[in-house]
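Hello K.,

You asked for the raw outputs rather than the summary table, so here they are, unedited. I folded two proteins back to back in the same session to keep the settings identical. This is the first:
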Amino acid sequence: YQESRHVPITDSICRYTLNRESIIAEDASQDPLLKSHPTIGPWGIGAFMAIPMQLENGHVLGAFCAVDVKPRPWHEQDILLLKELTASVMTEIHLRMQILELKTEKDLREKTMIALSHDLRNPLSIAKMGAEVLGYGETSPEDKENLLSMISKNIDRADRMIQDLLTSSRFKAGESIPLDMTSGDIVEIVGSTVESLKKVHKKEFHLDITGEILGEWDGDRIRRIIENLAGNAVKYGDVNQRIVVSLAVHPKGIEISVNNRGPVIPQGELDNLFALFHRSESALVGSQKGWGIGLTVVRGLTQEMGGTVRVESNQESGTTFCVSIPHR
């Protein structure tokens, strides 16, 4: 009898609850849904009741069931009791999932803070070294100009790291960052950002954009979004291939996309890319360092402008991040 109760999931009575509806049958042999099921007779099921075990996202894990070997009425108190037991079980499952999620996030945060502390030292050390050399007072005008440029670039680099960390922390805490909307041409904003990226990364960028698109824009947010996406493209893309930044107009707004050739991101990893401190498996095994903050910042900045961000990655067209923003 025990062995006969092991059946494939496709033959399980509980699978009927996957549509999130409870099953309450006083006589399973006469119930329209259950009477033809192959387990009703052999298992001696008379009355049957099943309550779906549903997660907050709507996914059904299974069902909490009550069975009687003889047909019987299910009273309101019976149904309420089983629903309360199901709710208690789901509360426990939810709490355990939250504890596991918090522990995972804690571990990721600690690793990220270690990496961030280490990476912050690099630009600050370079800037400090440059300042010390200037302090000697024995530099030519050309060397002085190069040292000042080096100091400025590394201070800017450290500042971007800190800003991204602060921004991601505010989004995680549920805080919003006020929009700073000004009238202007987004083509100019995107174009100047790409020109700066060429100088910073010493990399070939192609700008696919023409004309002008006037409107109300938060220029600083848009720059930060492009800088973060371009930084990822430089890190993980093919060093011998250019990065393409495109801007297109749609009926409801504009779409900025950043495309790079290189290793494909597996489909199973795409959904978690924007989670705070998360790095894809391919990124973890690669040589490039990262903290899993940049894409969280991109998503947060985009959503606060009423926009959306998505990613596509395949062998034919490479990896493309697309940011859609309403046109005001």
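The second followed immediately with the same parameters:
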Amino acid sequence: MRFPQRAGSPNRGLPASSRPTRGGRAGRRGEAMRNRSQTKERLGDRAYALIRERIVTLKLLPGQQIDEALLGKTLAIGRTPVREALQRLTAEKLLDSVPGRGFFVRPVSIDDVKSLFEVLTALERFAVHLAAQRITPEEVRRLAEVSERHKAAMARQDFLKVTTLNSDFHRLIHEAAHNSFLLNALKGMYHQSERLAFLTYTKEAHPKNMEVFNRKAIEDHERLIAHLAAAEGENAVEVITAHFQRFFLRVCHYMEPRVYALDPFLKQEPLHPGRPAPGRSVPRPRRREAPRGKT
């Protein structure tokens, strides 16, 4: 038995298959919510990338407090994506979160640098060892391509690009090791090492031998590519060890002694045991006097 349509019904005369259903309306609402969620994620990623770049390039100095409202206004991004980006950067140890006070750019200390390089060098050696056994011809080609771009950035003294391309080069080696746990461990450390790398390119602390260091870095990259392509693991490990020792010494060259005069945010801790930080004096030991009556 068929019932007549009510007068004025918008679906009157339409076949059943063409009539909108409650499920269709719900589907459209769900799609709109997914689109809003994806837009929010893209804004969060954009906020993260922009704030991270400001930390690496020292536009946000070590120890500086983050003004969330001003930062959001400067980046033209809402408060929620900015807050999510700050929390993400805190997890990566580039920011410190202080309850009741907000976010601060994590200071750089000598102890942190030493601890970072101890672990980073060990993991890099292992990554190179694995990559020499597992790297593919396509991965070798990509390494060579990034190395050429890195060399070009050095030639035009684009130090931000030099820093990011150097990280890309090493990240490709990590990926060529084909070990996801190792890749994740190294990823977190490179957030710290990028800031240290850019720190040493600042004009105030630009060492006179930076040209020599850059030339050696390019040579190291080229030798690494050759050793990895030839599956020469021991030789590749030897190159990467010297490469990171040179990087560590370069950071130390910046942090001692000039860094203490240039950057008041850095913790003044001595680099060498028993040796004071610059600007600190060591009391001279008193001269012992011979007991009376003895010569």
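The two ends are 132 Å apart (CA to CA).

Happy to rerun anything if the numbers look odd on your end.

Regards,
P.
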